[in-house]
Amino acid sequence: MTPQSDEDEVWRQIVASFNETAEDASAEQPWPDRENVTEEPDAGEDDGATGDAAPGDGIRDEDGTGDGTGEMRASAPADDHYIPPAPPPLPHGDTLSRLSWLALFGGPAYLLLAALLQWPMDGWIVFAAVAAFIAGFVILVVRMGDGPPADSGWDDGAVV
Predict the structure, then answer these.
(1) Contact by Cβ (8 Å): 136, 98
(2) pLDDT tens digit string along 34-74?
(3) Residue 125 lies in a domain
(4) d(Cα 124, Cα 45) in Å, to the nearest integer?
(5) DSSP 29-64
(6) Is residue 72 within 8 Å of 58, Cβ to Cβ?
(7) Mind listing the pLDDT tens digit for each residue in 1-24?
(8) CA separation (Å) from 72 to 62, 98, 117, 151, 159?
């Protein structure tokens, strides 16, 4: 038999079994009892409990031992969730930073608004808007401060 005929035979078998369903080997295996999670009868109701259960209540170890009830809790109580602390207030920028942001967004915003409303735009107005955009961008980039701190000394470590 040639390799081509073997390949043709394999393709015929694949095409012949295209619409057949696959056998599920796991269908005969029962679900292990240790994987079953049982809910308490009133798990969905809020009974005002504070969730002051003893450590290990309703939880079984890996080897199947636990508190002896044979049940696991489905989920934590609804009122037992994490509440993050309030974020710190945003820092107030200095006047130059605020003016730079205003120029960065204000110049193009004015040009867009003037074009949409068909305001007459003199050459000096367009120049001022473009210059404000460029100046705001340059000032913000220069003030980024992405260099090493001034007190870091002569050895920065490995700089790539």
Answers:
(1) no
(2) 787 776 655 555 555 455 555 555 555 455 555 555 555 55
(3) yes
(4) 70
(5) SPPPGGG--PPPTTTTS-------PPTTTT---TTS
(6) yes
(7) 577 788 999 999 999 888 887 776
(8) 13, 57, 66, 57, 53
How far is residue 5 CA from its own chain's centroid? 52
Residue written as token pair 């945003």: 90
Domain count, the chain: 1
**Domain containing 107: what range?**
100-142
User: Residue 39 and residue 57: Cα distance in Å, rounded?
Assistant: 14
Burial class (CB in 10 A: 0-12, 13-18, 19+), 100: buried
First to last CA, the chain: 61
Q: Taking CA 153 as the corner, what is the angle to CA 147 and CA 157, rounded to the nearest 5 degrees? A: 70
Is 119 among the domain residues?
yes
Q: Which two tokens stand for residue 44?
A: 């969905």
Residue with tokens 């460029």: 134
pTM: 0.40
